[in-house]
Amino acid sequence: MRRGVAVLLAAGLLTGAVGCSSGGDEAGTAGKATSSTSTSSSEAAGPAGAALSAEWEPKLKTATDGDAAVCNLVGDQECAEHLTDIAIVVTDLEQAVAEAGGAAVWPRTVMQLKKVNAAVDAYTEHECLGDENAGIAGSPCPDDAQVIMSGGQALVLALQADEASAP
């Protein structure tokens, strides 16, 4: 998974630096992802302690918010940057969950993390970024992008469900 995020992030940054000069939008997007993903592992505790959802809901919301049509063209740079923002927050959340007890304490959250991670890997393996045919019928890229975008939002619900069902 981390390789997939790194490849997706590197591809997004390389494409933005090499050929897409659309007025400096990339710098604003990259700054948003960086500032929204800083974590404090001391704040991450299991359901019996501090709630992970309180810390991660705003981060996930920031990463998943955006233009509803951002990924209408799933091979575009703008879509890849949006998906990368989500993937970065998901990777950070995955580490926080592991530090807070992992699957034993956060079963629904870990299951949802696996779904998003698999979709990030698939988007990378399917070479969706820059593929002009990424959105045509039969391409797996739209499904990959949809799972990443909806998975980021579903993680909030998974965190809340795990916290509510804790002893």
Would you kindly provide a written description of the structure presented here, covering whatever features stand out?
- With 167 residues, this protein is an all-alpha fold.
- It has one domain (2-16, 25-164).
- The protein has helices at 2-18, 25-36, 52-64, 77-99, 107-125, 141-164.
- Helix 3 (52-64) packs antiparallel against helix 6 (141-164) and helix 5 (107-125) packs antiparallel against helix 6.
- Mean pLDDT is 77; it is low at 5-49.
Task: Give the C-alpha Rg.
Answer: 16 Å
The total count of helices amounts to 6
Taken as a percent bin, the fraction of beta residues is under 5%
Q: Which percent bin holds the helix content?
A: 55-70%
Structural class: mainly alpha
Q: Give the overall shape.
A: elongated
* Unreliable spans: 5-49
N-to-C SSE series?
Answer: HHHHHH
Average pLDDT score:
77
List the helices and strands and how they pair.
Elements: H1 2-18, H2 25-36, H3 52-64, H4 77-99, H5 107-125, H6 141-164
Features:
167 residues, mainly alpha, 65% helix
Question: Short description, anyone?
Answer:
With 167 residues, the protein is mainly alpha-helical. It is built from six helices and no strands. The chain is elongated.
